[in-house]
Write a structure and sequence with these properties.
The chain has helices at 11-21, 33-43, 92-106, 121-130, 179-182, 221-234, 248-256, and strands at 2-5, 51-55, 58-70, 73-83, 111-117, 133-144, 153-157, 188-194, 197-205, 210-216, 237-244, 260-271. It is 27% helix and 36% strand. The chain has a 12-stranded mixed beta sheet with strand order 1-2-3-4-5-12-6-11-10-9-8-7. The chain is built from 7 helices and 12 strands. The longest helix has 15 residues, at 92-106. It is elongated and about 65 Å long. By secondary structure, the protein is an alpha+beta fold.
Amino acid sequence: MIVRHLGHTDFNRIMSCFLSAFENYFVPMPTDYNYYKKRWEAAKVNFNWSYGMFDGDTLAGFIIHAIDERHGEHIAFNTGTGVIPEYRGQKIVKSIYEYAITDLIRHGITKSVLEVITKNEKAIKAYQGVGFNISKTFKCFTGNLSIDEAQITVKKVPFFDIDWNHIPNQDTYSWDFHSRCLEHGNSDYYYVYHEDKIESFFAINVENGTINQLEVLINQNENWKRLFQAVQSITKQVRIINVDHRLEEKLRAIEDVGLLNTVNQYEMELYLKS
């Protein structure tokens, strides 16, 4: 078997391997190829810096990387790792990483980051064996909003009209929900006003109800309530993915409106040295 980058591998072939690897996963995975094409484009996936383990013509395993510069670091974000069932137990992920780390360093990447479900102990141990350490814990929620309706002033705004420097907690968002990825995604953006002043903000993918960002400018219970009333005016069924566990007021506000914590994830990171 041999490891090489995926830059010359057909997208449909990658997807076939991806879906096989994630069959019977902890959470149901979408199966629409176009969904991943759009998502990975927004996340800045680069298949030249993504890698696969090949056994002849068979793609047995993969690591798919998005590449971007953030906070002064050149980062490779692992947006998907998997091995098809018949090749598991052969330390394929470790072998791919041994090749990938050398190649990423050669291309100036200074840090590698990934997300893993906290219950996936086998994967966590495998990543720790490569050298990754847990850096953040994220909580995910879903449910239907059913709160008192009120007259809320909500204004839809274009992405480039948002003053991102004044939207709190930008450093707490996971890769896919950072503004640098939302810029190329499929979100609608809203300011929520109270007494003619911007009080809060949210970004939502209306196709699937995922709230990509959700912030109040001042942490007060009434501000959070009005924010969720504004969200409810757009959609009642929502998902909120990867809320940093340190944001206690936000988590309390999410739980107060009846959304359920469905799954948690770790962010893990590995600093690369030449």
